[in-house]
């Protein structure tokens, strides 16, 4: 039996609260996340208006009465009041509405029933409602149906639903007919003024809660449109990406992804459909030539009104990831075991494997291309690359495979958003290369990525069956769900045979077969990082898998990931295993060697699956509450002490 020396590493890291937000931290578990549509300066100004008496906290209102609103005591808190006051501040300071036109908690009658509207802005007569605002706490969904009922009851033309994380603006052109707007009118403006505004690329906002924006338009129109939400949203996303690319290449060009100023939904659909056709021509192979936007003009207009103000190119990839993952139905994700890897986990993996500029990297279950995008960004930062250099590297050195058509679309979109659109993305089954398209086979051969053998028969077999490859680095989170039962596929794998009898087995868990396949994708001395369910590491029944791994590679490290990491989709306990294939020069085989073990103790997500940030309103990875990057740093120090060749670069 082989013996191993275990080097144990554990990080202690305590949750920090928001600086200068101590009161808000009592009201919100995560203020930066809960109030993400507001800036830090806006939040600071609100907090300066808070006072304390007898252990209770009060906020001086921005409304005409300037009432003091209780926002917190030991028994009760009022998060929705914070949201309301932040938006009242915007109405006064950004949109220039006079304070005497603004009222709060206005009564509205619905037959015999009376309800209170959170904010009302009156028209010039100071009696007719011009705009109504329905406020919710950040943990609640925006109630668009309630907002619609308010607008219909008083014939109000504009409405806003806001919860601090996202905001939906409705316009009521006709009774019981609603459309969206990218913004509300400034004081004295009409809806025509809003629609006639021309936006340049620099005018667009960074999306901070794109998932909730998509949830809003899905609730408004997509759920009842009769079409697949994913397909239709992605057509719009590609049309918008193309529009932004055009304006990036021509800075004087106004953006064209917008609602028509004529208020004609058919004209809006014609304009967006043209952009989509141009996007298909720009990025061939993502959509079929026959694909068209299927949404009805009035439904499309609602979607465009919500999306047009956001900038996608260069956006925070974590925010985009959350939105794209939401679009894939939960049933499909559970059935396939496909869950996007959190970017903080990806970042740890990339830093620990430390790919170099000359190495070619693959993800065999690439999903949204998270591992590959972070590899690109890691090298850009390390080498101070220009965007052009980064794009050139991606085109030459990054490869991704995913069988799911929606994942392939997501991967291409993520690369476009990150700044590259020409990388190697293959819609194939990684486990069964016999089904690969000729174009994929030709590309792999043309890049000299097939392993070569001295023995003629092995060489011929590999050229025919594509079994062994020459990649330097592999990072993957293979799907956990499902089994492989096809006898022809199982026959190609050593793990497809019974560990004791050597006979072919009837079935095997998909992620176990991925372990062998991934080892075959990298050359001798190549490195791997695999996200796997905890059972692979400690189930007695899977000891033969662990022995197989150790036969073919050195275990560099095992990092246990905190249990909330893949929530809200799954609570499966996972770990990441880091491997280096045996090689006579770079990694000579040995029976005794130390292994780096670490367990993450600090959750970067709460039990609901929302990210937890340390301070401020930054949603960047570096601001996440987590100990994973400290673990990566500790591994790098330890690995250099061990003399790992890839850490000497």
From TrEMBL:
Keywords: Restriction system. The keyword Acyltransferase does not apply. This is Type I site-specific deoxyribonuclease. Residues 319-646 form the DNA methylase adenine-specific domain. It comes from the Bacteria. One of its GO terms (biological process) is DNA restriction-modification system. It holds the Pfam family HSDR_N_2. One of its GO terms (molecular function) is N-methyltransferase activity. InterPro entries: DNA_methylase_A-5, DNA_methylase_N6_adenine_CS, HSDR_N, SAM-dependent_MTases_sf, Type-I_RE_MTase_Subunit. Residues 79-185 form the Type I restriction enzyme R protein N-terminal domain. It comes from uncultured bacterium (gcode 4).
